[in-house]
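Notes from hallway chat w/ T.B., transcribed later so I don't forget. T.B. wanted the structure written out for a chain they're using in a teaching module, and asked if we could keep both sequence and structure tokens in one place. Agreed to drop them here.
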Amino acid sequence: MPGLAQAVLIAAVVVIVLVRQFQPQKVTEDARRWWALPVLLGFLALREPGLIDHDHRVTAAALLVVEVLVGVATGAGWGWTSRVWTDASGAVWTQGAKTTAVVWAGAVACRAALAGVGALAGVAQGSGPLMLSLAASLLLRGAVVMMRARGLEPVSARAGAQGTLGR
């Protein structure tokens, strides 16, 4: 995929994700829904020919591993800081909280620092590591939210409850 198309794809995914995370989203049992986009992004990232800079293999590989670990931490933090609740019909909902924004800000700072380290080390940096990290974030967030959603009991099972936050 050409560089401009990848940049547009990454920007579109990030904007959609950021806007949607602060709006209530219904959690569905359709397992394909929460992992489809991360798998697609991961596939596209792994097909990227410049994923590892061949002139700086060790440094590039280390930066890639750290980038993916930042994505994993971001996704887990995002999933655990999101509000998860059931409504009166028993449907499960999720919405990003203020602490979710802090998780995202930390992730952006970490990614900027990694890009700076890569630039100082002379590592050629493409969009592949960012896409792989974003895929890891989305995958972990989805898994954590699905796990939390399965642990909730319907509102009707709790007499007089108006909804609950997930554990």
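Follow-up for T.B.: The mean pLDDT is 85. Might be a good example for the class.
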